[in-house]
Amino acid sequence: MASVDINAILAKLSLKEKISLLAGGDVWLTVPIPDKGIPCVKTTDGPNGARGSKIKDGKSAACFPAACSVASTFDVEIARRIGVALGEETLTKGARCLLAPTVCIHRHPLGGRNFESFSEDPFLTGQMGIANVIGLQSAGVSATVKHFAANEQETQRLSVNAVIAERPLREIYLKPFELIVKNAKPWAIMTAYNKINGHHADSNEYLLKKVLRGDWGWTDGLVMSDWGGVNSTAESINAGVDLEMPGPARWRKPEVVLEAVKGGKLTEETVTERARNVLTFLKRLNAFENPIWSDPDEHAIVNPQHSALIREAGAKGIVRGKKIALLGYAKECLAHGGGSASVKPHYRVTPWDAFHEAFKGRDVEFVYSKGAHTFRQLPLLVDHILDREGNPGFTYHIYEPGNSTPTKTINGYDKSEMSLLDGHILHNVEIDLIGTFHPPESADYYLTLSSLGLSQLFINHDLVLEQKTNCPDAMGFLFGGVPVPKVCVPMEAGNKYTIRVHASPPVPDGDRDLGFLEGQVGMRLGYMSSTEHDADILSEAVKLAKSSDYSIIFTGNDPAWETEGQDQASFHLPKDGSQDRLVSAIAAVCPKTVIVNSTGVAVAFPWLHQVQGLLQTWFPGQEAGTSIVDVLTGAQNPEGHLTCTFPKTPPRLSRIRKLSRGQAQHPRSGGQIRGGTGGREELFQAQQAWSTLV
After folding, report:
1. Which residues are registered as beta bridge partners of 328?
2. What is the pLDDT of residue 616?
3. Domain count of the fold of the chain
4. At 186, is the pLDDT very low, low, confident or very high (cuts 50, 70, 90)?
5. Where is the PA14 domain (predicted)?
6. I need a labelling partner for 564 at 20 to 30 A (CA). Which of 350, 420, 517, 589 fits?
7. What is the four-CA torsion angle of 619, 625, 631, 636, rounded to 10 degrees?
8. Residues 45, 75, 226, 580: which is the catalytic one?
9. pLDDT in tens, 75-97
10. Is 226 a catalytic residue?
11. Burial of 270 (0-12, 13-18, 19+ CB in 10 A)
């Protein structure tokens, strides 16, 4: 590494070549300059697993416990070991930079990404972050500490202005970053989407120049933007953001930056310094000695040591309760939250499977009922559908706008969804998804349609659903969190129904919230028979519980409910009170009832007085089932602590709940949230907000 002379490399670069280094080459790679010997580096998400290039349907990866689960152990050695393992996992995906850890404070108790962050406590967050970064970088992989700064909510995250006085800013929101910078020396930091005291994070000179580079002395690390988080050209470069992501450049196109230099808004010296930081980053990662010039191969390798660590950490993070009824999410592995932190695990261990393994050969019968409808989106239409050649799947056509002749046709497309997350990067085209549906039973069928832009759903040429405007929440669509219209259509077994979805890109309307999704086609068609949709599954669960010696109810949020891009609507478990009704009904007929709750945020337990025990498991990773059963059977002692405050009486917290709904809070107006004016009462606002604790 010492042989790489950054000054010599810079001296050989033209101004245009230096500019090219200041933005990504594609979604995950930096820009290489092969004729100057400059390779690229691959980045990948995220905090609880190295996912690889595809958010959906990519190579599988080890899924570690979420940060809130790791923090609840209060065990920095566990955090360090997970960091080392994450570094090793990152290398299997051909990447050398992991976009983690997330160290934002749980200021908003319903924050959609709280599960990604460690705690509401700055010191605990900082200590766990230090250990995680040290472990990660010991494996030769860069940490990317994010999101700098005050990115504590998802509601209006691209535009909200966090108004915070100096003292709470320093002592609460910046403290984890400061601890990590001074004690772990991270190689990269990612800026946030939001504004802080009137300035976007990517152009906030106070944070980037005075605090980060100046007061904390972090002079040679790389500052990158969050994906689509650059909001200007000269201002962002001057403030200190070295790398715009993703690529290709939106704000840092060479001709735009050159014009800024010519106009005196930027100096070549500033561009050179930003390029120097990018090259130094490559040098730290040994990219010059082991160069890549394009996206490298990814591998799915199950490491038994990592699996054992996931199981151990998941069990330690749990917070302290014959014929056994397993209800709710017992047959699902709630390993992680949704959004960019999600991974496709190598495998998933459900509590149902783990219980059967633990009690193998013993005289114990397990019975199961779901007991509560918790679906947020209807499932994709993947069965009983044939393309135009009679094969399973859909036919899908791609059109140039205004042209009725497709430029490309694909048969056998296997699902009723298309988005950037599936690797479908389709800009400024229109699509048709066509298939013949053969209903498996005569029933009413519920259908839903959502899209980034305009879309229509036709059945036998009749228009049954239409989205007439751009999706109001583009990121919400991407991560499955937008409300969608639903229609109910009667269908008969033995008949055939032609289903066609037409989707076009968003109509340009100056909506900055689209960001890098501008021009991108995205759509999703969901379906479910009324037999399943309207079934009385609560009565079935109560009947099973009545005849059981014990009932264990698995409650929580799956990735569709707790995800990046949105905050929680309330403290109550989804959906529409169904899980709370399940617990109350079961506890009334089976006194020996224990609850196992998997969420990354605080939730209300209105039935707590009715049950004998409660475990808060957070999101324990791919070994979730075994970690939980280890604790329930006594094989592992739960050593977890609550890392955030849980409410006993959420109706008394109306000011906080309103934040998710875009209403006034602390106070909030005109797209502003206030993080404290600096007085003692403001520094302890979290404690002041909660009148009672669980």
Report:
1. 554
2. 94
3. 2
4. very high
5. 389-542
6. 350
7. -100
8. 226
9. 999 999 999 999 999 999 999 99
10. yes
11. middle
Residues 399 and 468 in one domain: yes
Amino acid found at 420: L
pLDDT given for residue 693 in this prediction? 37
- The CA distance from 377 to 306, in Å, is 32
Average pLDDT of the chain, as a whole number: 89
**Among the listed ranges 360-364, 494-498, 511-515, 593-597, which one has the minimum average pLDDT value?**
511-515
Q: Which residues pair with 466 in a beta bridge?
A: 456
What per-residue confidence (pLDDT) applies to 670? 40
Q: Is 452 helix (H, G, I), strand (E, B) or coil?
A: coil
Q: For the domain that residue 615 is a member of, what is the CATH number?
A: 3.40.50.1700
Sheet with 222-224: strands ordered across? 144-148, 188-191, 222-224
Q: Which residue has the tokens 């160069």?
A: 291
C-alpha 87/C-alpha 68 separation (Å) is: 19
Residue 158, C-beta contacts closer than 8 angstroms, at least 6 positions apart: 193, 194, 475, 512, 513, 515
Same-domain status, 433 and 477? yes
Per-residue pLDDT band for 321 (boundaries 50, 70, 90) equals very low
Stated as kind and residue range, the H or E segment containing 451 is strand 443-451
Asked whether residue 504 falls in the same domain as residue 389, the answer is yes
Cα separation, 106 vs 125, whole angstroms: 10
Residue 673 backbone dihedrals phi, psi, to 5 degrees: -125, 145
Q: Give the torsion sign (CA, 205, 209, 215, 221).
A: positive
CA end-to-end distance (rounded Å), the chain:
53
- Residue 37: how many other CB atoms lie within 10 Å: 12
